């Protein structure tokens, strides 16, 4: 009965146009009022205690770092570097988008921020190169979802705080699976492009690659600072977010 009431309130509020966040909070509070012995005055204290976690401060700071990189042009420099590395291969543009998503996810920790930052630049370019729109959308959307897995991940921070699990260990556990999934996406994109009839182009000279790497260096350095600092025991995840 309790669970049924909770979901009826939740979906009922959303159906009449109440924002999702307010619907979640209101349905939970109403369920606590009607089905528990908690005093009304204690509910705000419980809510505050639930969000009064030092580790949660990392979330807005990682999102801020991602937004600053996106607005400051670093997303474009990351994409240019990715293009110089894999852009000449069959499926080079979609592969560049995926490669850039992997890098950007390792900076921002947010899947939506990654999709917006990379997709806003690469989607039109991939379509103009002759790829089907579904191919462009699929590549960017799936690669953007790696932000959930590749550290620093906002989702891992929330899970670590909620389940009282070490966030640093969660980050360490996400590195290899994230890189493996990213590599599989690159391979699938490569063979998919060959199947569609796209051919390899001319690789960029090494000097040009080094030049584009140097332009993207400071954005890439954030990854080293954040991940290296956490794994090296220099930062906590929250301190690493502030450093980024």
Distance between the termini: 46 Å
Give the helix level as a range of percent.
over 70%
* Range of strand content: under 5%
The total of helices stands at 13
Uncertain regions spanning at least 5 consecutive residues = none
Dominant shape: globular
The description of the largest β-sheet is: none
Question: What is the total tally of β strands?
Answer: 0
Radius of gyration: 21 Å
Structural class: mainly alpha
Mean pLDDT: 80
Secondary-structure element pattern, one letter each: HHHHHHHHHHHHH
Could you describe the 3D structure shown?
- With 244 residues, the protein is mainly alpha-helical.
- It contains 13 helices and no strands.
- The chain has helices spanning 2-15, 20-35, 42-51, 58-71, 74-86, 92-108, 111-128, 133-144, 154-163, 167-195, 206-215, 217-231, 237-243.
- The chain starts with a helix and ends with a helix.
- The mean pLDDT is 80.
């Amino acid at each position: 009965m309790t669970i049924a009431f909770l979901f009826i309130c939740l979906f009922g509020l959303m159906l009449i146009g109440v924002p999702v966040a307010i619907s979640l909070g209101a349905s939970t509070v109403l369920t606590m009022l009607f089905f528990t012995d908690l005093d009304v005055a204690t509910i705000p204290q419980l809510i505050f205690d639930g969000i009064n976690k030092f580790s949660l401060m990392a979330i807005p700071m990682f999102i801020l770092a991602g937004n600053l990189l996106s607005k400051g042009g670093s997303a474009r420099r990351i994409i240019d570097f990715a293009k110089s590395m894999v852009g000449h291969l069959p499926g080079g543009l979609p592969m560049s988008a995926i490669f850039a998503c992997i890098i950007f996810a390792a900076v921002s920790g947010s899947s939506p921020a990654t999709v917006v930052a990379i997709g806003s630049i690469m989607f039109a370019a991939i379509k103009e190169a002759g790829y089907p729109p579904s191919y462009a959308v699929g590549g960017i959307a799936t690669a953007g979802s790696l932000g959930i897995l590749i550290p620093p991940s906002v989702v891992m921070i929330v899970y670590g705080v909620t389940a009282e699990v070490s966030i640093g260990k969660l980050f360490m556990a996400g590195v290899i699976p994230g890189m493996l999934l990213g590599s599989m996406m690159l391979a699938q994109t490569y063979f998919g492009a060959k199947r569609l009839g796209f051919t390899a182009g001319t690789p960029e000279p090494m000097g040009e690659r080094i030049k584009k790497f140097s332009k993207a260096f400071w954005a890439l350095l954030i990854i080293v600072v954040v991940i290296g600092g956490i794994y090296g025991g220099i930062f906590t995840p929250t301190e690493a977010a502030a450093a980024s």
